[in-house]
Amino acid sequence: MDVRSVELFLHLSHSLHFAKTSRAMHVSASTLSRVIQRLEDELGSSLFIRDKRSVQLTHAGLRFRSFAEQWLEQWRQLQMDLSLHSTELAGELTIYCSVTASYSHLPDILDKYRLSCPKADIMLETGDVALAVDKVANGEVDIALAARPEHLPLNIAFASIGKVPLSIIGPTIACNVRKLLVQDPIPWEQIPIILPEHGPARARIDHWFKQMGIRPDVYAKVAGHEAIVSMVALGGGVGIAPQVVVDNSPVRERIQSIPVGVDLEPFDMGICMLSRRLHEPLMQRFWQIAANN
């Protein structure tokens, strides 16, 4: 039994879906199956009941999950205790953020962090910011830059690092969407809308629809603000995006903010991690630097 095998088992024990765990933990389905089979061989018991429709934990699987969670926590505690006796903190942190945040918010934090912890290795994963809190909660990453959700899970610690304004955006190029946007009043129910799949931005625009009494003509649901900006720039419709994403986009000249008569609540951008890991030296140092940046 090794740390990686235990991490894979624990993720699968919660997702109960081999494909989801394979994608989330960046391993092939065959590798994941071999890891589980090896654990079952070592234990002499089946951990999962598998068929074509579902995956379920066996009684042995439930018992092993409890043991594995305690074992992994003790292993991390041992690493922390040993690192405290080192002259410099060492180890690895996996950080998740959007592509835009990787060059708008993260560099200044990492510059200071590297000076403080030169022996720490940083692994960066980018993707849809709406997935950030779940990535941390599921143990897929150590730290994430995220927009604070309306309901923050109780086991997640969040420290704000700034406000990020949001805009309703439309194309500036000659297209059917542009023709509709120059009308007075704007016929909103005729305009194709590009929505975020989920997350805080989706909640904001749904609230705006309700305020304005609009029944949106949904053209597409897209993961990631960068993708929304690109689709708007191509004339696909109107969308919502953080202003920092628009400002840093290579297609920003093809986009304009649309005055909508109400102020959209900005994102509370911050860092998040599991509360129970705040005491770990590398995590604690990152938290202190980011929160006071």
Helix content: 40-55%
Distance between the termini: 40 Å
Could you tell me the strand content as a percent range? 15-25%
Query: What value does the average pLDDT take?
Result: 87
Report on this model:
43% of the residues lie in helices and 24% in strands. α1 (3-15) packs across α2 (18-25), α1 crosses α4 (59-84) and α6 crosses α12 (281-291). With 293 residues, the protein is of the alpha/beta class. The chain has helices at 3-15, 18-25, 29-43, 59-84, 101-104, 106-116, 132-137, 176-181, 200-212, 225-233, 243-247, 281-291; strands at 48-50, 55-57, 90-97, 119-126, 143-147, 156-164, 166-171, 192-196, 217-222, 238-242, 255-257, 267-274. The chain contains 12 helices and 12 strands. 33% of the residues are buried.
Write the layout of secondary structure elements.
Layout: H1 3-15, H2 18-25, H3 29-43, E1 48-50, E2 55-57, H4 59-84, E3 90-97, H5 101-104, H6 106-116, E4 119-126, H7 132-137, E5 143-147, E6 156-164, E7 166-171, H8 176-181, E8 192-196, H9 200-212, E9 217-222, H10 225-233, E10 238-242, H11 243-247, E11 255-257, E12 267-274, H12 281-291
Parallel strand pairs: 3-4, 3-5, 8-9, 8-10
Antiparallel strand pairs: 1-2, 5-12, 6-12, 7-10, 7-11
Helix pairs in contact: 1-2, 1-4, 6-12
Essential attributes:
293 residues, alpha/beta, 5-stranded mixed beta sheet, globular
Quick overview:
With 293 residues, this protein is an alpha/beta fold. The chain has 12 helices and 12 strands.
